[in-house]
Predict the 3D structure of the following.
Amino acid sequence: MMNNSRTSGRNSQASGVQQGVYAVEFALMFSLFFLVFYTVLTYALIFAAQQSLNSAAENGARKALGWQLTRDARAVAAESEANRMAGWVNALGGKDALTVETCYGSLAPVDGVTPPAQAPSSPASCQAQHADQFKVVLLYHYHFAPLVPLLGPHFLAHNAVPKYLRAEASVSLGIASQSAPQGSP
């Protein structure tokens, strides 16, 4: 009998140690699984936001092709369309980190006056290449307003994600101003 009680004491002690091992294994595996899941979620939202910014820039540029009375009206229409389409990115970030800029070709006169050449002053600076070109640039400052909170040490988290999400689209305004050729139906 005594021998039997010693064995049962060892078994209960061994099962307690075994339960501790399960807890350590669970903690390690859960941490690894959570890290992978969080990384996938973070990059999925970054890719979705980038695609949304690309689409917003394209639709803003298309909106500028519509007939408007002035160039300023074109710019306002393009900016409002771009802001409308990319609004979810700004709302999810929780801060006003989205910048929308529009510009015309540097040689295009505005109301008879040729504007001075624009010098890039920020990552969002807009500079059109041709006189009849209209450009829409969207910039989202991801480090200022991340879509998913960054985890881990500051230097590691900020190096793993982009600083800015940038999208741009341009259209030729010459297409919008061309009339149908003579003799066309």
About this structure: The longest strand covers residues 133-141. The CA atoms of residues 154 and 160 lie 10 Å apart. DSSP finds five helices and three strands in the chain.
